[in-house]
Amino acid sequence: IDMVVVGPEDPLVLGIYDFYQQESLAHIHLIGPSKEGAQLEGSKGFAKKFMQNLQIPTAAYREFSASDFEEGLAYIQRHTLPVVLKADGLAAGKGVVIAATHTEAAAAFTEMIMGRKFGNAGDKVVIEEFLSGIELSMFVLSDGDNYVILPEAKDYKRIGHADTGLNTG
User: Fold this and answer.
1) Are 99 and 166 in contact (CB under 8 A)?
2) Which SS3 state, helix, strand or coil, does residue 47 take?
3) Residue 125 CA: distances (Å) to CA of 5, 134, 154, 168
4) If you average pLDDT over residues 47-74, what whole number do you get?
5) Global pTM?
6) Helix (H) or strand (E) holding 4
7) What is the distance between the terminal CA atoms of the chain, rounded to a whole angstrom?
8) For the chain, which terminal residue's Cβ has fewer other Cβ atoms within 10 angstroms, N or C?
9) Secondary structure element (H or E) that encloses residue 44, with its range
10) Over the stretch 108-165, which tens digit does the pLDDT of each residue have?
11) Half-sphere exposure of 109 (CA within 13 A, CB side)
């Protein structure tokens, strides 16, 4: 084996790239980010803080967990609609709810935190403003010194005619 291309997010977040850096495996090229870099995908809260620190435009947000659950419910009631709730961790593309009402948002928040709907991925929940428009993903490969920009991708998030259904991830 000369090269490993890692597709799923779980092994990247768990540090497979770092594992392949040990001397006995260093001759195998592994395509994927380090455990630290994979946090951009593995933690919505980490990604939001990263964007804020680098002044990358992003939706306004707050993070909540079981320890400040009541504060999170109160925040939801004051939030403009629709409101977006995201399980902080990996949830197989299913950890996002776009709630049209405060009641729906509070129920989703409760299911995520107290009902553990997404397991550990929902230990923290990011609540953010809804941004409408087209989502675009850019992919870049880098060896730390050089980079190549790959073709972009458009993510079709909601199923159904006129984006009326559930978020597909």
Assistant:
1) no
2) helix
3) 30, 23, 25, 18
4) 96
5) 0.84
6) strand 3-5
7) 32
8) N
9) helix 44-53
10) 999 999 999 999 999 999 999 999 888 888 888 888 899 999 999 887 766 777 767 6
11) 29
